[in-house]
Structures are given as C-alpha cells and as structure tokens.
Amino acid sequence: MIEQRLNLEQTQKLIVTQELRQAITLLTMPLLELQQFIEEQLQENPVLEQEYDCGDTQNEMSELSSAQEKEMDRAVQDLLNRNHENDDGGQEYEGYEWEKIAADWQENFYNKAPVQEQVSFHYEPVEMQYSSLYEYLQFQLNIMTISDEQKRIGRFIIANLGRDGYLLQTPERMAENLGNTVEQVEEVLHLIRSFDPPGIGGVNLQQCLLLQLDPAEKSYEPMKEIIENYLDMVASNRLPLIAKKMHRSVGEIQGLVDHIRSLNPRPGLSFEDGDVVEYIYPDVVIEKVDDDYVVVVNDSSVPKVGISNFYMKLIRDSDSSNEEVKEFVKQKLNSAAWIIKGIEQRRATIYRIAEAVIDLQRDFFDKGPNYLVPLNLSTVAETVGVHESTVSRAISNKYVQTPHGLFPWKFFFVNGVGSGGSLKAAVTNVKGIMKDLIDHEDPANPLNDESLVELLKKQDILISRRTVAKYRKDLGILSAGKRKRY
Fold first, then answer.
1. What integer pLDDT is reported at residue 272 of this predicted model?
2. Which residue intervals of 236-387 are DSSP H helices?
3. Which of 409, 399, 411 is closest to 298 using CA atoms?
4. Which of 79, 132, 233, 412 is the Cys-Cys partner for 274 at CB 3.0 to 4.6 Å?
5. CA triplet 471, 475, 481: central angle to 5 degrees?
C-alpha cells in the first residue's frame, strides 16, 4: 500500500554561485585569455576602469584612519563572502556605508600581492613559426628564368607534392591533366628536384635519397648501389651481409651507411603551413637570484582594473542620482568586486603553486631536467592548502619560464616507477639514466634491454624489460642489434 509521509532531513550541498563559477574560470584561463576577458569586462561593466598609474596608492592608504579601514574591510568582506540573495533572487545591499566603500575602494585588494609579483618585467613570447613548403618552392620557381608555360607546369607539379615532399602523381598523369607532353613535364620536374630542400619531388624513398646524393662525391656509386638494392638490410643493420654482396669491408660499408642515414627521408616535413604561428606566453617566470629562486607572475600585459571615479561619485552624492541609478551602480560594483578579487586569487594561487613546485622539485632547478622527482597534484595541493582540482585548473594550458628553459606546468608533475625499498624514481629521470647509459655504451657491443634492466637495478630502479623497451622507444632509440657498429 502506497503511503505518503512528510520527512525533515538536513543535508549539505555545495551551491556553485555565479561568482564562484567566475573565479574558477579565471583560474583556468591562460595569460592571453585572461587579458581578453578583462578587456571585455572593461567594455561591459562601466564601473570598471583601467588603471595606468598606481604610484600614489600607498600614500593614499596611509591617510586612511584606522576606523575607515576597518569599516571598508568589513563591508567589502561581507559583500564578497555572502550570497546577498533575497526572496526575489535579487541582491541585498542594505546596511553598508556605500559612500565609504566607494571612496576607499581603489585602495583595497589590488595591491596586496607579494613583493616579487610587483616587479615590472615584460617577457616577450616565444615564437614558433614555420614556412610553407609550397610557398618556399613557389618562390624558387618564380625567380627562375624560364617561360611562363614552364612556370605553369611547375606550379601544377608543386601543387601535387605531398606534405612530406613526395610526388603524388606520375609525370604521365600530370601531362594528361595539363595538356602538355610528358617530356615537357619531366623537364620542369627535373628542375624542381634541384630545389631546396634536397630530395623534393621523389616518387619513393629510394628516389628521394638518391636526389640528396652528390654525383661528384667519390662514394656516390657504392651509396647508390646500397640505396637501390639493400635498403631493407640497412634498416635491419645487416651490414656484414651487405659487405659480402658488394665485396667490400664491413668498416667501409659502415661509413657509407652512416652517410645514407644522415639523409632526410621526408624532406617536406620540416615545413608546415605558413599561417601557423604559435605564441607562448609564460604565466610564471622563475629566476635564480644568488642561491634562491624568485617567482614573478608574468601579468604585465594584463590591464590593471579599479573602480571608476565617476561612478564612485554617484554613490557618494545621494542627491546626484535616483534610487534606480544607485541600484544599478551597486550591482555593477558587486560584479566588479568579484572580478578584481578573482584576478587577485588567480595570481596568488599561481604564485603559491610556483613556490611549492620550486621546493618539491629543487633538484630540477639546481641540476636540470634529468633530476625531476615523482610529483602529483595532491602533494602540491596539500602544500599550498587548496583542493587538488584547484591545482589542476591553475596549471592547465599554462607555461613557466625557468633557468633551464620554457616548460608547460604539467612537465613538473611526473609519474614514478618502482625502485628499491620505498624509493621512487621519476619516469623522466629513468629515461635520462637509460639515455646516458646508451650514449656511453660500447658501439661494437651495445646494451640490450636485459642489460639495461640489470644496470638500472644497480641504481635501485626496479623495472621490467618490457618497460625498458617502451622507454627506449619513447626516446627514439633503436634496439641493440640495430645500434651495433662494425
């Protein structure tokens, strides 16, 4: 039988207010997005005003009486910490001395950052720009003294090159599409194959490599023979068999193969689209000063915002505006307060996380990237005194400039692998040790994966052979058999 009952329960819920959601969004924003957001808010909120000169702020603060400061701090803190929601979903503003708040607001919040953050540094972005392969080849074609018809054929050939620089159509097919003879197309194709980068216009790997050889070289013919007949043996490092077939010494074949391996199998991949320009602004700069490290939050390009004097006057002067205008200004003031506080919280959180990472990854800053230690978000969150998700949002899509270079924040959060006792070793550290071992191995007797496992074990790093093989492949290092030199 269905029975209706009335129960009273007490539960706790986290209500994500608009202000809290905004603070989370601000924390996640990289530097350029934050700059754009503030500029948009300056357009939308008339109470917000960009500040250009804050030099007199401290002097004005010193003139405030103690009573004024306490009243201002109490009202502002209440404003920021309470929901102020009435039954209609509106905002409650009664009980505050708005004239004092308006008069004193500019002296609050925005200048409470640590001293290190107030240093006025401007760091240029790291620019990564790649030329277009097609534009580069077109440029070389345009400066050639050839006929307009040949340039037309040349543009068609260039358009039929893949991103790796290989020819996508045969000369016969291109001649058919162009309405020219095969001889005319091959003549221009031969010209384009002389362009930079070497190897452009080949139809396969063999032809691409042959185009990069200099026929005037003394070793041209034997290298040509190896490329045309024994590339599969080169890939498997079967140099003794190649030497036997070519009736040459293994040492001589080794030298020829070394030269062949220095050629570029995909010359076009060194170019990307010309319109791809990526700017990376470090959100934090960590500099070494004497034996310590200084954190600089790189927000010099972010507009500094405060409260407009015009709207403060509307609040102070009760006779100059009606209640509707004052209510509008108070709502905008509330929104501006949360924006300013959100910006400050973002800066302070990133600053504290940077200090925590310096302490927890001290060996990295002192010695270099190979000395990272295992680090997770929860450890930093516990050190800073925030939730793990806050750290995750604070480092998302952000970069840090260090004495060892520019790194994404996530670079410092590395997994650990099992090792002797209760110790842990960072994956990047293990890879660095492996690379160092391989760099100093005997080329005639290279270290196989089993040998690497034993050598790592001597350094209290216990990992399986399969894991060693995976890390070796991640480093782009060939197996022992293919690294062997003769």
1. 59
2. 239-246, 250-261, 309-316, 323-360, 362-367, 377-384
3. 399
4. 132
5. 85
